[in-house]
Give the backbone structure.
Amino acid sequence: MQRYRFADFVLSPRQRVLVRAGRELPLIPRYFDLLVFLVEHRAEAVHRRDIFDRVWPDVVVSDSALTQAIRTLRRTLGDDSREPAYIRTVSRHGYRFVSPVVEEEDNGCAPAPAEAAHDNRSAAGDDPYEPLLGRVARWASSPAEEEERRDAAERLHALGTAEALRRLGVRPGHARARALLRDTRWDVPGSGPVPLLHEPGALAAAAALALLRLRRMARLAAARSFSASIGGAAAGLLAGVLGGLLLVVAPGSQAPLPVAAVLGVVGACCGALGGAGVGAGLSAAEAIGRSRRTLWLVAGGVAGGGAVGWAAEWLARSTLATLVGVHVPVGGGLEGVAIGAAAGLGYALATRRAAGGLATPRGSDRLETVLAMGVACAAAGLALTLGGRPLVGGTVHAVAVASAGAQAVLTPIGRLVGDPDFGRFAGAVIGTGESLVFGLGLALGLTRRPS
């Protein structure tokens, strides 16, 4: 492997170190990968899309994440964006590494880091904390000011997280400052913990942190929720059509072929609503929670699935009672909670290595995620139906039985699986199948990587 010399820096991809004048400069892994990528492709201006594919291949992040990475690299290199000596911004395209580079063989003997004390004093005076603390505590009225606040927070972590928190105290704006310090600690190597619980203004800081992360990821989270809704709709359509065709060909059935189309539409509508709710919950939870990720994702699935489920349950019961005078046990709320929790757990376990964005696994990793979510949702569906809670198929059957002359009674399908009527066993088989298909479709939509 080659290592690279530019100015008084040595960059060793083999040892994954950046050294300047004998002292190692710490970088988080993704920022180090970005620097290597820019140096390797220094003969060209690298497009932002290519950077995202190379540096964040397993997650999707907001554009501001790249801006922050470039800002951190410039600060580490001592570069100036207005007169760049190393990294130049190419308008509406990306970035280019512009410093002359010497390549040499990396024999594994990169310059050893020196044990020199680092002078953290700012050029403005002997106390570098106060001007930075004032910057992170004030309200940002523009994206540029928000980036300045993030830069100040990162500098405070480099100076010392514990001392920054001690000096922050309860000055005006301390809650949003603590939230920003908590958010940026992931981007500065060696930064300390930033606790929120049992601290002054804990609730305000937690709310500020949630809003901060959601605002940065809102567009991507909305796009993922829409993709999850499309995936759920496709899964519901497939399950409904297959169930309808099975009903048509079942022995003793008098259901006409159009029943398959009707059940497909019903399944697509239910799948779209469920996919939108669970997808929104998971996307929001993944954007907000970087620690305790599994807990956040399960909670997000519960919130999204439960909200949509209870709304659909109320609407279905009201519609049936008002329009056709039918009163049947319609599911929705509890079912949404259970399936949303299962989807969140399966997603969290399958994407546990993803960090720093919304997971978009590829290849075999994506297949593993799809299967994990499908199996988890199927297990939840089985538990629900065995407990007597109807899913889409069970609800359709109950409505058909209660309506004179309905053609969607699923009793013939029950006989196919050895149930004399559409009882609990037949309901469990159908419910498990539709939950499995929903989980697969949800996962395919949720993990789709935007172009």
User: Anything to note?
Assistant: The longest strand covers residues 2-6. The radius of gyration is 28 Å.
